[in-house]
Amino acid sequence: MIRFIKKLFTTAVTFALLVSFGYFVVLPRVLPLEYQDIVEKYTAVYGLDKNLVNGVIFSESHFEPNAVSSAGAKGLMQVTDETGWWAAEQIGLRTDTVDLTDPDTNIRIGCWYLSWLLDKFDGVTETALAGYNAGHGNVAKWLADEEMSADGITLEEIPYEETKSYVKKVQLAQLVYSYVYRQ
Prior knowledge:
By secondary structure, the protein is an all-alpha fold. The chain is built from eight helices and no strands.
């Protein structure tokens, strides 16, 4: 009986160590949760779900502040210079000093833009995410096309495979962040 209890105790300790290792070492590498003070600040300002923003950052840059895409999008939320300057103007930032690789600036502009897209597209997350990836002008055209949107609000069809995949990836990441980090 004592041998059984010792074995059970050893198994429980081993399990606890493995879970701790996974939670404190593996999880932060696989599903990072960085810059949360900035994310929380700007999701509160712009009325966004922080899991959605974490999903965008994860999908866009995997939390790498110096990331630059082949299209020239920069920073954590992968904002292009053109969108960054336009958004900076809208929120009262000096466009000549906008550094899209600065986490605070990038998340502020990215959150504002995502909020703007949600307003523009009637709060439909999938449509706003499609706009974030493919451009709001393209999405407006798709919504006007009855083959892609029966109601002019929801996209039944996204013609760009990259955008279709992006929307699914961000929504999955949002769900995982919500579940894993219980936010």
